[in-house]
């Protein structure tokens, strides 16, 4: 979504969606969210926003807020560049990513 940052890519057998996660390296919910994606075999890419320079972090947060019209907190999941889920609630992520 943002070509000016470097994402970490995790490959998996489930590739039905383009999945991006904006996370914090110290956030327990973020860690559980990334572990959930990995355990479910869902291909995704993620970035730890707190490890980016302040100006880049602020730019990403503003872009996410304006594009999805939602307050930004972490983890912030973007599905196919069209849908966003804020926070990690496993049932919501499971429904959005696995229930076809």
Strand order in the largest sheet: 1-3-2-4-5
Please, how many domains?
1
Number of helices: 3
Largest sheet: 5 strands, mixed
In the CATH hierarchy, what is the architecture at level 2? 3-Layer(aba) Sandwich
Task: Categorize the overall geometry.
Answer: globular
Order of helices and strands: EEHEHEEH
Return the CATH topology.
Glutaredoxin
- What is the SS-derived class? alpha+beta
- What percentage of amino acids are in beta strands? 15-25%
- Per CATH, the superfamily is Glutaredoxin
Residues in helices, as a percent range: 25-40%
First and last CA, distance? 24 Å
Number of strands: 5
Task: Identify the CATH class.
Answer: Alpha Beta
Radius of gyration, whole Å = 13 Å
Low-confidence stretches: none
**What average pLDDT do the residues reach?**
96
What is the element layout, followed by pairings?
Layout (H helix, E strand, L loop, with lengths): L7 E3 L8 E5 L4 H12 L4 E5 L5 H15 L7 E4 L3 E4 L3 H8 L3
Parallel strand pairs: 2-3
Antiparallel strand pairs: 1-3, 2-4, 4-5
Structure description:
- By secondary structure, the protein is an alpha+beta fold.
- It has one domain: Glutaredoxin (3-Layer(aba) Sandwich).
- The protein is 35% helix and 21% strand.
- It has three helices and five strands; from the N terminus they run E-E-H-E-H-E-E-H.
- It has helices at residues 28-39, 54-68, 90-97, and strands at residues 8-10, 19-23, 44-48, 76-79, 83-86.
- It has a five-stranded mixed beta sheet, with helices on one face.
- A hairpin with a 3-residue loop joins strand 4 (76-79) and strand 5 (83-86).
- The longest helix has 15 residues, at 54-68.
- It is globular, with a radius of gyration of 13 Å.
- The protein starts with 7 loop residues before the first strand and ends with a helix.
- The model has no long low-confidence stretch (mean pLDDT 96).
């Amino acid at each position: 979504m943002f070509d000016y940052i470097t994402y970490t890519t995790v490959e998996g057998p489930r590739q039905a969606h383009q999945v991006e996660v904006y996370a914090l390296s110290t956030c327990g919910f973020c860690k559980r969210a990334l572990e959930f994606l990995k355990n479910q075999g869902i291909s995704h890419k993620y970035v730890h926003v707190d490890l980016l320079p302040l100006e880049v972090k602020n730019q990403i947060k503003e872009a996410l807020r304006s594009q999805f019209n939602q307050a930004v907190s972490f983890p912030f999941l973007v599905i196919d560049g069209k849908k966003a889920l804020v926070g990690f609630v496993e049932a919501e992520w499971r429904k959005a990513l696995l229930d076809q």
